[in-house]
């Protein structure tokens, strides 16, 4: 269960929990169990869910209908599938944090989708940039990395 807090947000509560356990004369095992639970809760928000990692990205990119549905979801022009909703929810954070909470599979998929949109659907890419990067902040931030990957943003 995630409490929506980062590990840093939990340092003080964990220290307080340790002091409380000590004052209540809990055994070392009880303290360890409570600490593990606290750390697990804190770390739960440090990665995005991987439950949609097995979505067939190639099938979506090959289907104009499926791709359009995902793009419309991201642009607030249509309904979202559960995985589209998850993507839409986390996309701003992923852009801000350089996908630091992404799994390797998510990073690979992101690269594939961006490459496809830039090369095959530039008008769609521009629409998404207009919504998610209106000031060009992320485009500028990721320019060097994109160049290394032979990708023009």
UniProtKB/TrEMBL annotation:
This is Ejaculatory bulb-specific protein 3. Pfam families: OS-D. It comes from Camponotus floridanus. It comes from the Eukaryota.
